[in-house]
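INPUT
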Amino acid sequence: MRPVHDRVSLNLQVRGLRPSATVSINERSNAMLAAGEQVFKLGLGESPFPVPPSVVAALRAHAARKEYMPVRGLPALRDAVAAYHRRRIGGDRAYCGDDVLVGPGSKELMFITQLAFYGDLVLPAPAWVSYSPQARIIGRQVVWAPTRAEDGWRLAPAELDALCRRDPGRPRLLILNYPSNPTGCTYSVEALAEIAAVARRHGVLVISDEIYGELHHDGAHASIAAAYPEGTIISSGLSKWCGAGGWRLGTFLFPRELSWLRDAMTAVASETYTSTSAPIQCAAVTAFECGPQLEDYLVRSRAILRALGRWCRARLVAGGLDCAAPEGGFYLFPDLTPAAERLRARGIVGGEALCERLLADTGVAILPGGEFGRPAGELTARLAYVDFDGEAALAAHAAGVALDEAGLWRIAPRVLAAIERLVDYAR
Ligand code: PLP
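OUTPUT
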């Protein structure tokens, strides 16, 4: 008889699985900080901004709510989420509360989609860190679609088409995330319509991960659901645009045509997490209703992120590195290949070695492109320009501090210093 602690009894799907790269870098950065070292935390993509006061007040008002909620979510919240998306998408789709599934984070909803849907997972490379490990845990095949730096790492419709033609009958799930983590790039309405046409032709199910939609730097986010409503699930939540990652609330909006999938996922949810925290759901109603206070918060958040992202990118490019222009969210995906020879001379080959050495030598924490589906030998990396006090930044902006270079040094000195260090390191 094998002893119970024998590792052999670990499920094959999770054997060798490491904790998520973003969570690990955060824990490592925190340990270094605790040891008194200077760390620039550009590793974990956490919103720097506080939860808007009106949403905090709503949470406070509902703190005593203690009952289990319906598996699919609080009806008032589902209605608010459907109305929110109706306003954002436009068109004539009459989404209603029945089309919404609320979960403890959109990450969990993605996981149960992958569990409930049978088919390959298609991801543009690079893509967010957790999609692929989730597929691996469940035993789904991941098919990476190549992208090009010159295209802002966006999925080209022709690549999706080519991939689907290789085995036309196969069920597929495409997760399209925009504005993108890790690149900060997004898609135009025209580009989305082209991808939609290919997806429709091949019957590809799309999860449109729009968790950064409200953080489009110009407030001009558009959804692929407008062009491909019948095959698109829209993913959103409180984590990024509402600064409430730790509250753990995500939402999926389904078209009526995919109610079979929504129902299957609801059944899985009922047997696993049961329902999402009651006070959080009550507070989320206020967030999705998007009153004037929240609009003001979003306008300021976008302005700060826009200025900061542009400054960082301009500095990286001026330092001789490649980096696509950011359009939304708070990420950049620089490529240090132009510095490859100098780095090699210092024994640094590949993204992982780069990020390890950069953290050790300069205290700047970023993540290698390999964690996002790029080749391990590539010198791409993701940086999250979030190491600043978002509450103070919002107050400074409201008080009229300009978002020029001098203003940014006041608002986000650690981010600017980190970029300077990175550029110096690649010299
Ligand atoms: N999708 C993307 C692209 C993300 O960056 C994240 C969080 O970092 C998530 C989904 C998960 O968000 P949630 O907090 O709703 O689980």
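end of record. The first helix runs from residue 21 to 34.
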